[in-house]
Amino acid sequence: xxxxxxxxxxxxxxxxxxxxxxxxxxxxxxxxxxxxxxxxxxxxxxxxxxxxxxxxxxxxxxxxxxxxxxxxxxxxxxxxxxxxxxxxxxxxxxxxxxxxxxxxxxxxxxxxxxxxxxxxxxxxxxxxxxxxxxxxxxxxxxxxxxxxxxxxxxxxxxxxxxxxxxxxxxxxxxxxxxxxxxxxxxxxxxxxxxxxxxxxxxxxxxxxxxxxxxxxxxxxxxxxxxxxxxxxxxxxxxxxxxxxxxxxxxxxxxxxxxxxxxxxxxxxxxxxxxxxxxxxxxxxxxxxxxxxxxxxxxxxxxxxxxxxxxxxxxxxxxxxxxxxxxxxxxxxxxxxxxxxxxxxxxxxxxxxxxxxxxxxxxxxxxxxxxxxxxxxxxxxxxxxxxxxxxxxxxxxxxxxxxxxxxxxxxxxxxxxxxxxxxxxxxxxxx
Length: 430
What we know:
Layout: H1 9-23, H2 26-30, H3 34-39, E1 46-51, H4 55-65, E2 71-77, E3 88-92, H5 99-112, E4 120-126, H6 129-132, H7 142-155, H8 159-167, H9 176-181, E5 185-191, H10 214-223, H11 230-236, E6 254-260, H12 262-275, E7 279-290, H13 291-308, E8 316-325, H14 336-348, E9 354-360, E10 372-375, H15 379-385, H16 390-395, H17 399-406, E11 409-410, E12 421-427
Parallel strand pairs: 1-2, 1-4, 2-3, 4-5, 5-6, 7-8
Antiparallel strand pairs: 8-12, 9-10, 9-12, 10-11
Helix pairs in contact: 1-12, 8-10, 13-14, 14-17
């Protein structure tokens, strides 16, 4: 079925993105688990802990649905706080940790220390928690952790590789916070922002066991040529850096629920596309790799759909999620979603009938308060008419500056959820 005559590509793409965000709304996703949580209350304390860009919204949703006493604290990114009555909300820095995050991590450990077997700990964790919950192992200075985070972010390492390193240099990640909860029971409600939805990678797994090893963390650093200061090297090579493994007797009983995932968001976007008369195809929810390389591959698929109706006939929309990476070589403002889009526009070369949107579902692409952007067939022509240099912008990792000049950014503000990147390529026939 063809779209209606008043169909507008950009409007549809933005509706699909909004459908993805709405599907991961903490209030909507947390509600189905309230009854199970209540059934686990044994007459002891109910302590709430958490970290991530969605954690404050998750805490507010829990409070609104709960009819008994709660206590505890969660830490979220600056500007992402939501007022709560019983649960304390702390804001800290992301993606590079700061002293506020370090203080929050220490206080969170204090909150769960000394609990008993009748107590219940509810863990509310989402993407961003790795940086927000910063507690270096003894012997590591916060400044060294900050420098390491910057190096990892610029290296092109995948999120799972970065989190492997983070888990082995942290006093709370990699199941260590769960060990502090013992012997209380722990129930985790997680919003996944990571390819594969591994709970150990969501906020670097403070309250779940970890299968990776410090040897693997060292291998990641070697792979990307990241040299450690002597203090970090000494700690990482010591047994103290090893994370908590499955079956560790020091871990309490742990139950983990994934309450929102990238695939859930993509399925919601697909339903919205169906409603608009466009056939959706989900290419995957765990796509990784250099943003510009992923863009070239997807451009080839979009061109094939447009010209040959293969592998999918137009009109259609190609949906995907996951987390691409950007290896910083220039001095621009970065952003993996906008870098993907700029590389995509260059690969498409103004092909008629192809539109695209790429954005981060938390509303922040890289370190910019911009979720992402849109491209149209005339994107390159409009840019060159304004004196912009698309290739130069890509080489300088300055896609945010490029799309800002065009006025094609997608700005949502903090969405208070995070199910990773969202990409939609809309292909229309002649």
